[in-house]
Amino acid sequence: MADHVEMIPAEPVYGRFSRRVRAVVIDWIIIMLLMVAALFAAVSANSDSVGRILGFTLVGVWLLYEPLLVSLAGSTVGHYLSNLRVVDDGTHGNVGFPKAVARLIIKTVLGIYSFITMATTSRHQAVHDLMTRSTVQIRDRSKASYAHYVAERSELLSPAMPSRKRRIIVIFAYVFFLAVLYALGMELLAIVGLVSHACMDSSKCSQPEYVAKLAYGLLGWVILALCIIQGWRGRLFGARRHIEQVRSPD
User: Fold this and answer.
1) Rounded distance, CA 3 to CA 19, Å?
2) Where are the domains positioned within the chain?
């Protein structure tokens, strides 16, 4: 019996969120190991001048690690081990060094929030991808499984999708409504005694109040993110994607 051969689509495919997080974790581990090694070397040398040199060198490595590797090789070590590469939209090759630096700055400032737009863009781009006109694609398709990549979202480009302006207006309306509900919910927490007014106004919270306030805040952020994602995908009432009815011939 012939071995099953997984069919890989011919068009570009993009790394899933889980693969990209895996790459970030690997790179973070590498940088942490370098920091530990530099600290150990500085302690062993027992010299202030050597310690300062190692410190400046480590800062330089931390700042240049991703931009240099991405611009020269198309991927960091984490990207490579996760079978990913960063591709410039214009040249379809490696991004230039300035773009790679910009990607790092934006990703560092926004943190995990930079990846929210992956759920709302046709090519699964994070904020730092969108702002630098780049994508993160599978490096070697023959080594990729279906769990590693996603194809371009054609539904976001469909004529049945509401206009961007309409989706943005509806999303803002929902966000405003959610903000009102969130404020009312905080008052309800105070009424039932889970969170005091002192905790809400001046952050003087007991341990149970802090946990309740944190959990409520996280829930609010999750609902907000889902609202934005679903709204951009045309799944909110007021800006839904039209579903064409196909009638069978009589």
Assistant:
1) 26
2) 14-152, 157-240
- Give tens-digit pLDDT for 71-127: 999 999 999 999 999 999 989 999 999 999 999 999 999 888 899 888 888 889 999
In single-letter form, the type of residue at position 249 comes to P
CA distances from 48 to 51, 61, 150, 193 (A): 5, 20, 51, 55
For the segment 43-70, what is each residue's pLDDT rounded down to a tens digit? 776 666 766 777 777 777 788 999 999 9
Furthest-apart CA atoms within the chain: distance in Å: 90
d(CA 157, CA 149): 19
Residue 178's alpha-carbon distances to 132, 182, 186, 195, 230, in angstroms, are 31, 6, 12, 20, 14
**DSSP letter at 91?**
T
